[in-house]
Automatic annotation (TrEMBL):
Residues 270-334 form the Rieske domain. Iron-sulfur subunit of the cytochrome bc1 complex, an essential component of the respiratory electron transport chain required for ATP synthesis. The bc1 complex catalyzes the oxidation of menaquinol and the reduction of cytochrome c in the respiratory chain. The bc1 complex operates through a Q-cycle mechanism that couples electron transfer to generation of the proton gradient that drives ATP synthesis. CDD domains: Rieske (cd03467). It comes from the Bacteria. Keywords: 2Fe-2S, Cell membrane, Disulfide bond, Electron transport, Iron, Iron-sulfur, Membrane, Metal-binding, Oxidoreductase, Respiratory chain, Transmembrane, Transmembrane helix, Transport. It comes from Streptomyces drozdowiczii. This is Cytochrome bc1 complex Rieske iron-sulfur subunit.
Amino acid sequence: MSSQEIPEENLPDEQAAAHGAVEPAHDDPFADPGLPAHKPRIQDIDERAAKRSERTVATMFLLSMLATVGFIASYVIFPVDKIVFIFPFGHVSALNFSLGLTLGLALFLIGAGAVHWARTLMSDVEVADDRHAIEATPEVKAKVLSDFADGARESALGRRKLIRNTMFGALALVPLSGVMLLRDLGPLPEKKLRKTLWAEGKQLVNMNTMEPLRPEDVVVGSLTFAMPEGLEEHDEDFQTQIAKAALMIIRIEPDDIKDKREREWAHEGIVAFSKICTHVGCPISLYEQQTHHVLCPCHQSTFDLSDGARVIFGPAGHALPQLRIGVNSEGNLQALGDFEEPVGPAFWERG
């Protein structure tokens, strides 16, 4: 079919124009459609509905406060190791579950209350404003302040005192959850950093053979590692205790010991020093027999074991603590007390 055979009303615009047809008007795709007419909510026209919404929001804030109190109470009620069965989660920690549940509820209820407040009681009238330069003119500043005042008035924060007071209460209690989390830092160290398992009468046990050390087991120039008797590798706090109590046992010719106190605290040239470096707490294990120097493998701090284990090189801040030793009635090496200074790296309470 040719163009001449097509009905005129079905011709394209160009052909229709050629036949004298008028081009239909098209809407501007970039025209401002304007704002839809505002539809009032039930709360805008019925004060009873507004009061119901106010009570709903206040209830959420009150429940949030109760959840925060429950979070704090959970720390007191549930021990750390209590396990309970909760369907469908299975066996879970009672403390962790209660903390997560109560804190989640406290935060959710504050958010839900704020959203419900905004959607039912705050003004929902849409306002269009023209774009303006980034730098605010005095007139714009005045308008911003005026809009802020209008927003504060429309939020009804001053008039809805029940909502305002319960919201402030919920927001004030929630930070207490963070304070309670400080308990997870553990108990106060008290004097635990200054004390080890060594005490008068504690025998020195060879860490390789797990047998008590005797003076004849330690030859001149040898290096042996020891720990207190009674400490077992399967103990729950083994790593914590050995990190403070591990010893280096070295036998030096008495005439080669330069430090007077070191000689007095030794037994027939056998000296016992902490194995824990005083820089960052690495275990020391490299011994130079001819010079009686020990080297920390982490940062190369070097200590002279013939001169009170003083630092002769590296970043360590002070000498290795020495343990006073002797021999018991069975002929085994034993401690004559605990270290007189803290073991390991310096800490702020060190005195």
